[in-house]
Design goal:
Number of helices: 12
Catalytic activity: adenosine(1779)/adenosine(1780) in 18S rRNA + 4 S-adenosyl-L-methionine = N(6)-dimethyladenosine(1779)/N(6)-dimethyladenosine(1780) in 18S rRNA + 4 S-adenosyl-L-homocysteine + 4 H(+)
Order of helices and strands: HEHEHEHEEHEHHEEEHHHHH
Oligomer: single chain
Distance between the termini: 66 Å
Helix content: 25-40%
Number of domains: 2
Radius of gyration: 24 Å
Family: Belongs to the class I-like SAM-binding methyltransferase superfamily. rRNA adenine N(6)-methyltransferase family.
Keywords: Methyltransferase, RNA-binding, rRNA processing, S-adenosyl-L-methionine, Transferase
Shape: elongated
Pfam families: RrnaAD (PF00398)
Strand order of the largest sheet: 4-3-2-5-6-9-7
Protein name: rRNA adenine N(6)-methyltransferase
Amino acid sequence: MPKIKAEKKARVHNEIAKQGIQFNKDFGQHILKNPLIITSMLDKSGLRPTDVALEIGPGTGNMTMKMLDRVKKVIACEIDTRLVAELQKRVQGTPYQSKLQIIVGDVLKTELPFFDICVANIPYQISSPLVFKLLLHRPFFRCAVLMFQQEFAQRLVAKPGDKLYCRLSINTQLLARVDMLMKVGKNNFRPPPKVESSVVRIEPRNPPPPINFVEWDGLTRIAFVRKNKTLSAAFKHSTTMAALEKNYKVHCSLHNKEIPEDFDIKQKVQEILTTVGLDQMRARTMDCDDFMKLLHAFNSEGIHFA
């Protein structure tokens, strides 16, 4: 008879393993176990003794404990009640207990309180919505130092013309300054993820650019669907034209403007693109200033993206 291979046991954090807790892959639980990387992330975040720090997905509290030593207060948001209990146990009866506030639940569905700084090894599957939740959070925070999947981090910092430059890149860079801090190998986590990781520093632009972000997002969505095509070609899609025409008619109705009988949305769009000299440009080579110029040109002619 062929030998039956023994099932591989899930690699779990030693302390948690003793209690029979196994990490939940649905929550993207990969505990950062290397204390040098934790210390480096905290050093690069520029924590101050007066700060209120936010941590998303504290896990077993390796980073939380080091952070509590440096700031006035830590707000930890954790979805897994088993790990919440473990974190509470670690601070119980210590001076840190009064400095730690735990929010139990899904961070994407939680109304976040005020914080000065965010340092976290976040669940990778919520990377994109979390970045924009943080960037649209008010009042402004000073900066965030976050661990991401390496390719996601590269997209965040990509510049016009780079292979990975995309809508995520330009939407993030409109609202924040983004810097790559360091690469982190998969063996620094337990259990190790399937991908390499990177740490990124995100610093919100304060004040933010004077722009309607929903409109901006609508414009970049159209341009980046076919980022290698010219804008002239990207805007010729029938569903895009239909949506823009509908928005234009709403705008005219609200402002009591009469729509000419021979009005042609395709012609109007091409005229605007040509006038600003961007009709032959491609989204993959355009920066924030180019898109701001384009959005202003469309809006001033009554064409909106929201």
